[in-house]
User: Fold these one by one.
Assistant:
Number 1:
Amino acid sequence: MTILSIRNLKVDYATQDGVVQAVDGVSLDVAEGQHLGLIGESGCGKTTLLKAIVQVLPRNGRIVAGEINFKGTDLLQLSRTDMRQLRWREIATIPQASMDSLNPVQRVGKQLTKLLSVRGGHDKRAAKRRAVDLFDLVGLDSDRLSHYPHEFSGGMKQRAVIAMALALEPSLLIADEPVTALDVIVQHQILEVLRRLEEELNLTVMLITHDISVVAQVCDSVAVMYAGRIVEQADAGPFFASPAHPYSLGLQQAFPNLARPRDQLVSIEGYPPDLREPPTGCRFAERCPFVLDACHSDDPQLQLVGADRYAACLRSSEMDALRLQAEDPALWQQVEVVQATAGPQETWGDSASRAQDGSAEWAGQPGAYADAVATGSDSGADDILLELRDVSKRFKVGGGLAGLLRGDKEQTVYAVNNISFSLRRGESLGLAGESGCGKSTTGKLLVKLLDASDGEIDFDGVDLTALDGENLLGFRRRAQLMFQNPFEALNPRFTLYRSLTEPLIIHGWTDENERLERVVETLDRVNLRPAEVFLDKYPHQLSGGQLQRVVLARALVLQPDFLVADEPVSMLDVSVRAGILNTTRRLARELGLATVYISHDLSLLQYTCDRIAIMYLGEIVEIGPSQQIISNPQHPYTQALIAAVPVPDPTIENPPLRIREGVPRPTEQFIGCPFSQRCPEVMEACLSVRPPQVSDDEGHITQCHLYGEHSASPKLKDSNGTRA
Amino acid sequence: MSRGIANYIVGRFLQSVMVLWVIVTLLFLLFRLAPSNPMASYIDTEFTKEQEQALLARFGLDRPLHEQYVIYLINLLKLDLGDTFHYAGTSVIDILRADLPNTLYLTLCSLLLAYSVGVLGGIAMAALRGSRIERVGTTFTLMTRAAPQFWVGMLLLTFFAFQWKLLPSSGIGPAVVRYRWETEWDKLLSPIFWRHMILPTFTLAVYLHGLPLLLMRSNMLEVLDQDFIVMGRLAGYSERRLMIQYAARNAVLPVLTALTLGIGYSIGGNVVIETVFAWPGLGRTLVRAVQSADYPLAQGAFFLIALIIVIMNFIADLLYSLLDPRVGASAQAQIS
Amino acid sequence: MQQEAMVRGELRGKKTVQFRQGSALRQLWETNLEVFQRDKLALLGLFIFAFFTLVAVFAPLIAPNDPLTPLKDANGDWIKDVVPYWMAVPGEDEAEGYVNTFHLGTTNIGRDIFSQLIYGSRAALLVGFSAAIAVAVIGTVVGLLAGYYGGWIDTLLMRAADVAFGIPFIPFIIVISAFFDPSIWNVVVAMAVLLWRDSSRVIRSQVLVIKEQAFVSAAKVSGASELRIIFVYIAPSILPLSFLYGTLAIAWAILTEASVSFLGFSDPDTISWGYMLQDAFNSLALSREAFYWIVPPGLCIMLTVMAGFFIGRGYEEVLFPRLRRM
């Protein structure tokens, strides 16, 4: 039975620059008991759709046309009060960033009981009982009811929000990005809660996300939204096996997949159309590799293309053939056009030849850069560019005069503990781990944004801590950092030219012409073409993907030989992520750059890195060649991390996790193994003896007692991970 | 958790004591190192050297500066502010003790009035945001903040006291009546006293209501923008409930802090109003002491006002940490 | 505003490109433009300041009489307590020995109120603008130093701000005024000594935010020196805040100067609006209902102070968009 039926819904936003048609003729059915995943990138109208369903659009938003039928009543005809009564009783919506959606100055339990009494009509005692039950349902300890939101971790807050959403026993749950911004292990556990609730409560769920692997894990049907329209709707099985719209095809191949690694990810280049003046033809035509002339004039409607599946594409009948072609990343690369927002729309078919021109000139630039590239291609023992020996970083928190006055006890945070590794010229290394594991701190140590508390970091044979003055400036030229959030990484007050030319000015390039030449060349390399168009733009005039390319260009403008990329694509839309990764990877290879990628996403690291290091509480617990780490993880923590990564394939179900969420605060040093608190394999020795580093021939090092002399030490937990 | 708050409170208290000590020291230096000799106006040209010395000795001004400083600090700790120059034998503390209640009545009444109007007005302005009423309302409030208090007082006096003769123009009551007030209670129970309070209270409130109103309005707008309000709306709470129980409840916390701070600053700022209405309070005493170069009295009044401000700043911090559960915790552990 | 640097260059020896480079000053200028374009009240405030500045500059040309000299009529008597000519009732307010041309009448000792009002704008604006500059400069420097360097510099400066917060403002100015020779500069000095406390705290917290932003780290990684980071990256971002506190300081300074003059701690040889009101108050103008004497100076104070508030509010709405009237 259809519980929610949307027909031809149109929603407009009135903005200063015109009317944005955010949702433009969406029709969608959700059957009772169905678990629908609504996929789309930012700005496609998926959140607007949610807000329109429960009618909480912002002031400038307006439902222009359409029907929203819920259990037979048109929601758009309801009075405001009736609509309000429906919310959370019938349709429960969990907003985006719902972790911040709890009232910060009220105890969580109070918020829950208040909801139950005000909206649910429970009396005080019944509300309290029900609150305990609900917390139990989502896997929270009922002691937690008396806590304030700031005492909860991200995952706990998300659980609490889910408990609240279910409090009034709704028949439909709509969750907007419920696991975005959570660590992979927490994410896995929240998804597990959702999956369990779907079954136990027979909930109808609509899950809105940009992440197709999340959908693959919890949904049985899929709708893909693009530029205000639904472009494909199907059951999960057939959808993942054979997408029926070029956009879905691209999305699927843009995702790194741990289970099926590929050489080259597909990047859907270009950007969605301007919804103030949507194109007359197909909205995806500009970015589609299969585009025909007709696509620009004919607007394809969502139509039946197979058993119970719908797609909006003129070429849907040829889809089987197209699907085979789509496997080839080069096909998608042909449309690698990165247009300036305001610039003319030109296609640069000869991008490959231009890039080669660039590299020839590049090598001829002043400085010792060409030499570095030359040596980078050799391999030998003195090939080591960077070497860390027992590096630690501690921060003191509290304390000081102010702390003393305030009565705070000084605390030490052990952010990085005794890590050692080396990096060859031209090599790429991935640092992975949950947030708080010290991977970003390590990144900052590597480019000397922070100084190590202990240990040595040798860069080309020189210890970083000893650098100052001219030598430091020399190091600064050679080591660069690429930032996570491209919207913050560029000075909003500078034009792009100013931002890109700053490093050159600092390093004594006095000739404006030379600087300009270099800047234009670098922009060209990162595929921002024509480069001249970008020079006088301000950051806010560019999209996230373009900005991240500018950030990359700034890192490369000094022609460094070492680059640290801290979560380089986590803020970007899926469709452009692959483009940035591909460009970075290509340039690193071309220029012989040694690269350290920092990411919480193992599938991304597998795609970009030669080697991967897994960090936990400031220590490297396992390091080795990427393939080995992914396919043959040794450390229980690495095993858990890999098991938690959702796979964009509904036929592969993630194994149940054997560790609990929540990284302890690194405020004490461990005598034994730092992971012993959470480890499912924990043994007596783990608590008291430091684990040994066990290495194999291929440089796969694991720091764990399971593989050392204490491997026979008595286990403390049974096979289910509960304490024996 | 509670340990965090306790630590925070103790720390804040120590900080306040330090601040007070610095202020007291500055005050000492200001009055001792002032370009004009503090005794200049007091010492008669007819005085002999001996008489002058005796006088200096009486006020301890013949000793070396550091000794004076120590004596001064010890006296302050004993709340001994010395004798005034002008009314021989009257201690400063007695005069201030008589003034302080009058200042407090005036300040508290006007703040109460101003903050009630301000908080409600701020909620209304936030609810009506974007409307013509809001634009006119906030502009009018800005005008009241821009009008000098003494001028508003003068205009009100002209109308209510002189033209229409509805209310008394100055003081707290005629001498004959004041004579009969033996205790504070007599004064507080007297309708005459309250009649005298109306104009100064109202004048002060006209000025003071602007801060809570604008603060409440902007806090409301900020809170209304927060995710938990959005979720409350999704959860089906009524707009009225969201506005009052959610937004206003959270938005009022900084206003309460401002109120606490306001008590301190109004006591210091009442100087002008007390002069216009000849209100026998701390401020007027300070002005008259400075005008007549009665340095012990001026110093004492200044000290008392500063003390009240520092105490109120301290209480504001406390209040904030008690009302907002996040404060104590963040002070305890700023761990990233 | 300054001419913005243009970049001209040849690209691969073929193509000539030319474009704007962008500068902090240009951005500041744009912020200012935005403030006055989107907020009509802020524009009104600007006009009020402009108007009073003109009045202050050309005071000797506008004022018909010397503001301090008591006027005498042909018989040698003081022309005192004269009502404005447009209020004069024929038969009652007869002028003898002089022609009543006084726009706002005369004081109880025969000084021309209108001329005093004109000259009063000088004191107000002088105090307002110099205090604003002092407060903005000190607050910005302290905020920058405390926020950027942190550590003991921060502790020291912020504890100093705590002390400044503990000192009662008006009483402090009264004491200062009494100790030094009466002068309008007392108000400026006292404001400079105390009022940096608000602006420095806000600017400090803003610096703390900016300094953690990735583009500042990027500059560091590129090898930018500390001075370059402070002056090229951080300072331009907080200048609008300094402007905001500067305009608010104008308002507070004018208001404070008026209060101090009203209490009688100003230089009797400098005419200010507060002094005029004190004069009126002390010569019992209230009981005579001499509105022509009481109202104009107060209105002028209110207008100029409001102008400062309006402009400050305009800045606030641009700097803190959440407060915008939606």
Number 2:
Amino acid sequence: MSPASEDKNMKKWKTPLWAAVAAAFVVLLSFFAALVYLDQLYPVGLGPRQPIPFSHRVHAGVKRISCFMCHSEAHRSSRAGIPPLQTCILCHSRIIRTYPYIAKLRALAASNQPVIWARVNWLPEFVYFDHSMHIQRGIDCGHCHGDVSRMDRVSKARKFQMGFCIQCHRYNRATHDCFTCHR
Amino acid sequence: MDLFESRGCTMSDMSRRTFLWVTGGSSIALVTEPPRKLVNKLVNKLIPKVIPPENIRPGSWTVFATTCRECPAGCGMHLSHRDGRVTKAEGNPAHPVNRGALCPRGQSAPQGLYDPDRLRQVLYRSGGASRPSNWQDALSAISTRLISGGRAVILSSLQTGALAEVMTGFASAFRGKLLFHEAFNYEPMRAAHQELFGLPVVPHHDLENSDYILSFAADFLETWVSPVSYARQFADMHGFRQDDAQNRMVYVGPRLSMTASNADSFIQVPPGQERLVAATLLKLVIERGWQKNDLTPFRGALDGMLKGAGQVPAIPEATLLQVAQSFANARAPLALAGPSAAKGAVASDTALCAALLNYAVGAVGKTVDFSRPHALSRTAREAELAALLGSLGANDVLFVHDTNPAYSRNGAAAQLRRAGTVVYLGTMPDETAQMADWVLPIDSPLESWGEYEPEPGVRGLMQPGMGRIHDTRSAGDLFLKMAGLARRPLSRKGSAEPPADFASWLKAGWSAPGGEAAWAGALRTGGDWNTRPKSPAAPPALQAKGGLRFAAAGVTPLPKPAQAELWVWPSIMLYDGRLANRGWLQEAPDPVSFVVWGNWVDMNPRQAEALGIEEGEMVQISTATGSLRAPARITEEVGLQTVAVGLGQGHTALGKNAKGIGANAFVLLGGVNSGSTFAPCRIAKVPGGAGDRMTATAPSRNQLHRELLQAVPVSELRVMKPGEGDRLDLPLSKGHRPEEDMYPAHEHKKHRWGMAIDLQRCIGCGACAVACYAENNIPVIGKEMVRGGREMAWLRVPPYRMPGDRLRYAWLPLHCQHCDAAPCEPVCPVFAAVHNEEGLNAQIYNRCIGTRYCSNNCPYKVRRFNWLNVEWRKPLDLQLNPEVTVRTRGVMEKCTFCVQRIRQAEYRASRERRQLRDGEVVPACAQTCPTGVFTFGDLLDPNSRVSRLAATEPRRYQLLHELHTKPAVTFLRRVEVELG
């Protein structure tokens, strides 16, 4: 092969700039896609879109607010309870008042309108789970709900199927009475 | 609805290629669509409160104390509130009238609130057709009528306190009159007391401290005055006590009612002759000198009456003598006069004789207290009502509030129409609403503020248990608003300012003496009352001096076989008919006949034979005022030439459940019959009746020698010591006997739940069964399905004939016995019927595949199968208990001992880090029982009440003990009192 032809070949294989950019973009995209797919970008998944992008990561993670501050019923009732708007306003009447979503929240509270959240965790209606009994036994919230302190948009960490419940009950030698959950 | 309606299905012309294309496509769609999204479509919203009301917490019960307004008794009620809705009504344990219990009617209060047929909007009727209107138009039109000189006449259900003040003020502001119309107004009793003591009242009756009750057709355990209170008192008085003499109750009347059946002896007389028995007893008391107060001046009048009556009922002289002697010599005797529905001269004479009997034996001032008259004493009397209705004219604006004269008063509809404008304020589209010009929907008692004072010193407060579910207003607010619009604003006595609304009027009255604290206290406790036992006031002086007027004519002869005396009785479930649209009450069996959904005519077998009438055939009963058609029930519960019909059915309006069910017996009443309690009537067999067949869920009273319901004579009990009696096989490891048991013993570590049922205390009212419907989301399936044997009641209280007594029934509350060796468990192929860790027979719905083997193998027949998916007509679904699964078609269900209540109590104890206390778990049936039949507790705890009863009570037995199922329910035998 002559140097001339080599020269010619090199000229032939010269990539245009746009193609290089596109290739880099595709590589980058697939890298991100891989991150997402392997749950590296959102290690705890991405839950349903909420009307106000409340971040558990900020509140429970960064600010280290206790779960019971807002889910105040968890230790004394079957349900953990979705906090009333009053609870949000408790802080946000003083801090971060003007951020658009918080302004929206304050406007809703002022007009006595509730925020309609999208449900994340769900149990069939023939299953009766009691939060208070599990909290009392010292089961961490994260055991079922995942690490919400790393979730911006809370997602379902576990599939609440009977196997999941029974596995834990078996491990902890807790009751296996059908009438505990089904009645 | 045809359950097995087949859907027409034909093979389509789909080609193989299309088929593959469709199935492939849908498979891909299913794979790519995550199931969570499907779920999200079902329940995907979480709506928290903005500012939560105080004490209302998600997932927890909140209880509101209020007052029951299903009848004039005024029991205290607790409303269980959960997430914005009331799901259950229970008795207020602190209330002096009912002390925690409720009757079936009170239990059904939430169904009245959520009634799908409730009035939801203002209606205006012109020219026969009604059309929707709005509040503004209605109120301005009505107030314009009032401004232009209309007279305001108000007919209301019985009210006291704030609403009565508002209505009185309203009526007098517009030159009108207010009358409280109740179908049962106890006028005969009031008239008798007026004549004797100058006090036209229904006095306070102390059954609890009485030791001998003599009832002249007063069904005080069912509907008479204050049945829940009386039922509790009766059970306390009549229950078995090892050390005390057994107290007695004697019932004189023509029909074996539930109350009559609970009597130790039932003296059957033809209708109208209860007064003669009363007079004869009175005469015997005077003749033998057994009286404590002198009655000799009345002897002449008595003799005259007995002579004039001509025919004295064929009761052995010895029986009468014995009753008279026991009554007169009792420590605290009490005579009660009925029946509730009667108004004429005969009933007045009975009441007069009963009042004289009470006076003669010194019961007045002891068991009869005139210082505490019942609120019923304020209801309109017949003459007042007739005068008012007769005076209605074109210039009158008639307000009918929460009462239904068009249904419950013969001929009232035509009289009401004469009023210029009829305004109906009520919750249901009943017969009166059908003819009103304006129909104003008002709040249900469970949604409204109010008060009710059944007797002096017992003030019950009513508070809303939840927000309104329809566009309704409070009746008090409407009267205040209309008065304001008509330029005569009303204000409370002692305040010049008209109040902002009815609630502030009410609040002003409650906080007047004690300030804000009194109001807050009343909200918490449900009212204001003195719990200290009151000693009755001194007896009033006798006003009548010898010249008694016995008004009734002699006994009417009934020469023809087709003639009979009519006997009309209010049904324990439906009262005066106002509750007839409630599915629970229609499906709850009548205690005596066990018929559901409809009414019937009781007729003696001999008369039926003479007329050629057979069981279930349609008969027509005609009196001078009207006639009705209903199926015949041939029974000896009524005597010869007596027909008995229950009230409350036969609505032409009111709602889907009530309309067209049964026949209205009020149409037979209203005539003047001075010789009969109600009226003489004619019986005629009529064709037809296939559409209105009687449907009973317990067809036989016969025990067929199976000894299900057992009784023991008092004399036998007296010599028994605690611990003696039957050997029980308790569902514990000590009850396990290898030679009889097929399966190994169950190990119970924490609890073994059990129940004791005291049959001596059970009066058969069926409140437990209705409470069970309310608590456990049991569907109402309708007459057709019940007739097909598909009733869903987990708890039934069937009557059985007492051994050796033709005319006495006793009731056997029967639900799942939670056996230790349960026959249902081993036959379930999928382990849906399993024994749980606390001894309950669990039925796991999501495991059940509906083989029904368990039901077939259950000797007690207490399991129920869901043959269809029942839809709760909206908004009845709001009543569903969120703690109990709603079962679907193809699933077996049965009593769970209210496991949801057990769990809640256990969790509460666990959160408070303590042991469960005995009596902390109360199933719905035990909670509502007026007579305290049920004792629930832990059989593992030797000190629990149920363990002690099962171990020591000499009356104990187990149902079908010979089968060795080791049931967890211990029955305590009924007690046979030997008369003498």
